[in-house]
């Protein structure tokens, strides 16, 4: 892809495509920047698409001496914003990335002018992925198999096996020392009392079949954020941006045009 580069910023490998106003994409627990691959071509034509591989995820470094809690990832994201001189931008977060995005906006309101929360919640995860079950699976099967078990529950019934297999190969890159801390921190995070302080246009997106962060959780986000829209995407579960990319991209484009 032309006009693309990869940079190491702190402990994050950052993928940058295109030029113009920035859209910053943050992935979820054990996933990677590649989960936003279907958004690169359409949105980098006239914008700078910045996809962050969080520390300990994907191709990014995973030193054992640092932290991997939500607040640590917020600091990592702040460094990306500073080093890339990102002006107020559109911030997009998937699942755990949605939790990070909420914390980032609440801590740095001038740095974001619009927010997109995909498969996200105001508090923890849905009942299908309880933290104690994830930790028990890591102990019993190892982190790679435990992460793949979550992926198997993350797609709609109609998702092609090739996409599910691709996703299962992506999540095995996150080691146990990262996953344990991240899932505990994600489970403990709670922004319910602060949602009304998010005063920017916000698009909340969820797959109709999402069992990881059920649509009711997205509805709670939309109800709590004053200037927000809820979009439920059919024939999709936890990853609507790769399960139904044309629908997702159309809804995202409408949102961008509205702001």
Automatic annotation (TrEMBL):
<dbReference type="InterPro" id="IPR029058">
    <property type="entry name" value="AB_hydrolase_fold"/>
</dbReference>
<protein>
    <submittedName>
        <fullName>Pimeloyl-ACP methyl ester carboxylesterase</fullName>
    </submittedName>
</protein>
<dbReference type="InterPro" id="IPR000073">
    <property type="entry name" value="AB_hydrolase_1"/>
</dbReference>
<dbReference type="InterPro" id="IPR050266">
    <property type="entry name" value="AB_hydrolase_sf"/>
</dbReference>
<feature type="domain" description="AB hydrolase-1">
    <location>
        <begin position="23"/>
        <end position="249"/>
    </location>
</feature>
<dbReference type="Pfam" id="PF12697">
    <property type="entry name" value="Abhydrolase_6"/>
</dbReference>
């Amino acid at each position: 892809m032309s006009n693309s580069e990869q940079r190491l910023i702190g402990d994050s490998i950052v993928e940058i495509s295109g030029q113009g106003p920035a859209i910053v994409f943050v992935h979820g627990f054990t996933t990677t920047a590649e989960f936003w691959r279907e958004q690169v071509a359409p949105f980098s034509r006239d914008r700078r698409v910045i996809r962050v591989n969080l520390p300990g995820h994907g191709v990014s470094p995973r030193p054992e001496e640092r932290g991997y809690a939500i607040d640590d990832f917020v600091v990592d994201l702040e460094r990306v914003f500073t080093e890339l001189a990102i002006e107020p931008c559109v911030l997009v977060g998937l699942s755990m990335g949605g939790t990070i995005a909420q914390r980032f906006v609440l801590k740095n309101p001038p740095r974001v002018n619009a927010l997109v929360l995909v498969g996200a919640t105001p508090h923890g995860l849905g009942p299908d992925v309880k933290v104690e079950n994830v930790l028990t699976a890591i102990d019993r099967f190892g982190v790679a198999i435990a992460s793949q078990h979550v992926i198997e529950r993350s797609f709609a019934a109609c998702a092609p096996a090739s996409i599910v297999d691709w996703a299962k190969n992506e999540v095995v890159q996150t080691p146990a020392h990262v996953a344990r801390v991240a899932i505990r921190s994600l489970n403990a995070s709670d922004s319910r009392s602060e949602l009304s302080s998010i005063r920017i246009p916000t698009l909340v997106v969820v797959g109709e079949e999402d069992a990881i962060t059920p649509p009711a959780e997205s509805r709670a986000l939309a109800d709590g954020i004053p200037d927000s829209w809820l979009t439920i995407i059919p024939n999709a579960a936890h990853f609507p941006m790769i399960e139904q990319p044309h629908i997702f991209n159309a809804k995202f484009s409408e949102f961008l045009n509205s702001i």
